[in-house]
Design goal:
single chain; about 550 residues; mainly alpha; Amino acid/polyamine transporter I; two-stranded antiparallel ribbon; 2 strands; about 60% helix; globular; disordered N terminus
Length: about 550
């Protein structure tokens, strides 16, 4: 990375929109932060839509790569001294129409007192929340300019959302039902599904409270001030590290399934050698390679069904199911299920960006519903088929059962394992990139480091290289100390998914709109907060307790 890439950070927090200099569509209050296209047409207008198959493919690919690359990065804030003193000027806002003004009047009027005084300028009394500089501003420099101002179509938004939700957590769903049984497992699955569907819709309302809010961190700032934004950034940094650990564990388990005689030390060294170079690839290339993740999950579901139908006798047959339990004989492990299932619904960090990036934001709730129908369908098929085929012998990852069960098509199952091995290789660099940039920009913003490398640009490159290698080594070490995929996924779901996808959105919504709640709405809000918090605490504690899985 060159010296200019370290310091020349554009101020636009939401890089999907090349610049904060924009127009205002009276019928679309979300249009403030979209810049005009090079031909003068407004983004999302008929003139800006793809005109050929090639344009359509490029538009789809660009939308997908943005959503993948900016998954969490736009919520990681940077220090002000990491930016050149070249802030953009916000155009004077057009007047809201009566309808939009009435919406903003629903917001708690005292919420403004919680916002930093330096952000008091903006649209009327509302702060320009998105003028914070984030890691996403740096990542946006690595995308072709033609991709940045585009808005995503409805279909693109659905695809981006499904891709964010359906990830490696799908591998542990059968284990979740093994721990909880059919009854409790189904209840937990339905609570996580419908609860996060509800909170995903609340995110849009929280963002609409302030016209300048475009990220999850902005929502936190609107409700709780700068402390809310700092909390969000801190949580996402730790979550990304945990995802990195999960990727390493998944890769190690895949290698062990293919080469069973390898020692754990050898596997971790191979993982370090294969994954670390991914940290040095351009982000736009990593974004495209992350397609392997969703392709792998889709192929895996098909392979599980084909295997189950092709085998006539247990174990591993859908025709001759293994013993399962409606109520688990050992309820001790039920709290593990909270995190294992919730890990599949951890995409709320990117929903605000997808909402603001939509061509037709009024269809956001419909987009969320379709996303959840598709996601829940895939999850239900995997959970039911996996638990039915292997019952009480279900392992941490369904691929381990496939690899260890005789009678299957070896070529097909080897393909499944290789797809799972490729998933962390393709997505590791993408997930760790925001952490690396955050660390680098914080370090290089220090006056002593800046003075040390001022006349020797290679020193910053040296710091970047050493830092990325050390962070990768730290992640590999944590994966060695904390090797269980079930434990990592349970922790990821219980501590982070519940916090980011349930508890925090509910808390923000209550803080911004609570003064207008009816008794029923207030009761629902408190009930969801209480249950989600209890499940988060129990699931987190059980992630660290010994179990007999």
């Amino acid at each position: 990375m060159s010296n200019s890439q370290y310091m020349r950070v554009p101020m636009n927090t939401h890089p999907n929109y090349g610049s904060v200099h924009g127009h205002h569509d009276e019928e679309d209050p979300n249009s403030y932060y979209y810049s005009a296209l090079s031909d003068g047409s407004a983004p999302g207008s008929p003139d800006s839509r793809p005109r050929s198959i090639r344009d359509a493919v490029e538009s789809f690919a660009g939308s997908y790569s943005r959503a993948s690359a900016l998954y969490v990065a736009e919520n990681l804030t940077l220090p002000p001294n990491a930016v050149l003193s070249n802030p953009p000027t916000i155009h004077d806002a057009d007047q809201f129409d009566d309808e939009e003004q009435s919406k903003t009047n629903l917001v708690d009027p005292h919420a403004l007192d919680r916002l930093p005084s330096q952000q008091s300028t903006g649209y009327h009394l509302f702060p320009s929340l998105s003028r914070h500089t984030t890691v996403a501003s740096v990542l946006s420099q690595q995308f072709p300019p033609s991709q940045l101002p585009q808005r995503s179509t409805f279909v693109q938004s659905v695809f981006n959302s499904v891709n964010v939700l359906v990830g490696i957590g799908i591998l542990a769903l059968p284990l979740g039902f093994r721990c909880a049984g059919w009854l409790a497992g189904s209840a937990i699955f339905l609570f996580c599904s419908f609860g996060t569907n509800y909170t995903a819709k609340l995110l849009a309302r929280c963002l609409d409270a302030y016209p300048g809010a475009v990220t999850y961190g902005d929502m936190g700032a609107a409700a709780f001030g700068d402390r809310g934004r700092t909390f969000v950034s801190s949580i996402f940094i730790v979550e990304l590290m945990t995802i990195g650990v999960a990727m390493v564990v998944l890769l190690g388990d895949g290698i062990q399934s293919l080469f069973r005689s390898m020692s754990m030390l050898t596997i971790r060294l191979i993982s370090f050698s294969v994954l670390t170079p991914m940290l040095f690839l351009p982000i736009r290339k990593l974004a495209y390679t992350s397609l392997i993740g969703i392709i792998s999950c889709a192929c895996l579901v098909v392979i599980v069904i084909v295997d189950g139908l092709s085998k006539k006798t247990q174990p591993g047959s859908l025709w001759d199911p293994m013993e399962t339990e409606i109520i688990p004989s050992d309820p001790y492990n039920i709290p593990l299920t909270f995190g294992l299932i919730m890990a599949g619904f951890s995409g709320h960090a990117v929903f605000p960006a997808i909402y603001r990036d939509m061509d037709e934001p009024k269809k956001y709730e419909k987009m969320v519903d379709i996303t959840y129908v598709l996601t829940m369908g895939v999850y239900i098929v995997m959970a039911v088929a996996g638990y039915t085929m292997f019952g009480l012998e279900t392992m941490q990852e369904i691929t381990q059962n496939l690899a260890n069960t005789p009678g299957y098509n070896k070529l097909l199952n080897h393909l499944a394992v290789w797809l799972i091995v490729l998933t962390p290789i393709a997505k590791y660099g993408l997930m760790m990139n925001p952490i690396n940039l955050t660390w680098e920009l914080w370090i290089t913003s220090r006056p002593s480091i800046d003075a040390w490398s001022k006349f020797h640009p290679w020193r910053k490159n040296f710091l970047s290289t050493v830092g990325r290698i050390m962070i990768s080594a730290l992640v590999i070490y944590i994966a060695t100390v904390f090797p269980g995929f079930d434990r990592v996924m349970s922790l990821l779901g219980a501590l982070f998914s519940f916090g980011i996808s349930a508890i925090f959105p509910l808390a923000c919504y209550r803080r911004l709109y609570g003064h207008n709640f009816t008794r029923v709405e207030s009761a629902i809000n408190w009930f969801l907060l209480f249950v989600a918090s209890g499940m988060a605490i129990l699931g987190t504690v059980w992630s660290f307790l010994p179990n007999d899985l």
